[in-house]
């Protein structure tokens, strides 16, 4: 049935990871016209990355657990009338409530990294934000050497490119992702001389209820633990990589014991030979699109910020739903549950129907059970304020703008900066291409002089880099960038 040109989509879903996929298919099953946008060329998000077909991987699912959940969603997407828009980088969502029948405009640019800069705008009556998370990085002296990669980045190299960042790889930082990364690297043939975890796992034992009600999490840890034992990988708790050594690339790292506040012990530490370091300190919800629209956020026990949502996953802004890591980092199964709940809730609202109460209650129970575990996990791996003691004045903190820890300390101690924004204005830290994604957490902590204040709420009008021509095109009286196609439902 042809659709009038002015008709918007019912629901625009941003992010085609487990949360966005589940939300899109649930809403489409109930009868909504759905557009599903993702910056990536593929569905699956961070977790279900698959090798490029040209690499000829025979069993890509071997790199994942819980593949069947993803296969089911992918199959339902293929059967549906959802308009899947891969390679679309959403840089802003704006409220267009003045328009008849449309509430939201989703602005995107296309191409790898937004490279070809073709502007796209589509309209929708409601939006589901499922933009996932990115890794938290804490700088280390020597971390700019080739061979230092993000822990999730090492896993992405393996899952998407079937390559390893080195032959002998130390995995370090904090959080359960390290166990998954180390066991995957070892199974793929890397030698992993150590997993270096800055916190410990004993704090989980203080919350037996969260453990008992989430047996799949303990089972997952057991699987990774057994794999690490089989590959003779040593796990060093309450320790950190405090220096990376090498001339042209990584040759070794120094591992130092930490106290409970992550302050490194005095002394030389232990030197471990390696040719790569995979390092990460947990994940941070990617919520810029939502906070710019005024959605309320909340602090999590690990100092990150996540969107505040109600029992049906709606944010504090009516018509904007959120699911998955945007509400706090909790894994693919939780993301799928929340996505489905949000999709059902949005469809019920737009269609003026009651949501199926039995299914909604079951999803809510599952979500609450998993979120309880997530809070325990976040508290167990919260960075202690003492980490900044392993920085020297020469350590680069902002890699894009080459701003050192010394310059940031000067801005704080001599010039009186007390927050990340003032440090940014004084030093340019966070003004480069990554817009503070690499250094933001570290700069905020250094600006707060080590106080665990949590991250400030960022309001960014542009969520991803956008060519100036696209912004200039917004002057179009119709609000449409020059040459921008407006995608319309194809039903
Ligand atoms: C680097 C990394 C590695 C991980 N490894 C593991 C692991 O080994 N095991 C595990 O259990 N969990 C892992 N996780 C967590 C796991 O990926 C998540 O729990 C799960 O994928 C969350 O699903 P999601 O749908 O909320 O987000 P994601 O899967 O992250 O999906 C979000 C999607 O949104 C898209 N997106 C974001 N911003 C935009 C934008 N502005 N415009 C368009 N598209 C956008 C992204 O391209 C992505 O496809 C990892 C996370 C990260 C960041």
TrEMBL record:
Keyword Oxidoreductase appears in the UniProt entry: yes
Top-level division of the source organism's lineage: Bacteria
GO molecular function annotations of the record: oxidoreductase activity
Keywords: Oxidoreductase
Matches recorded under SUPFAM superfamilies: FAD/NAD(P)-binding domain
Domain FAD/NAD(P)-binding: from-to ranges: 9-328
InterPro entries in the cross-refs: BFD-like_2Fe2S-bd_dom (IPR007419), BFD-like_2Fe2S-bd_dom_sf (IPR041854), FAD/NAD-bd_sf (IPR036188), FAD/NAD-binding_dom (IPR023753), Metab_Enz_Cyan_OpOx_G3PDH (IPR051691), Opine_Oxase_asu/HCN_bsu (IPR017224)
Cross-referenced Pfam families: Fer2_BFD, Pyr_redox_2
Domain BFD-like [2Fe-2S]-binding residue range list: 397-444
PANTHER family named among the record's database cross-references: ANAEROBIC GLYCEROL-3-PHOSPHATE DEHYDROGENASE SUBUNIT B
Record's protein name: FAD-dependent oxidoreductase
Organism: Streptomyces finlayi
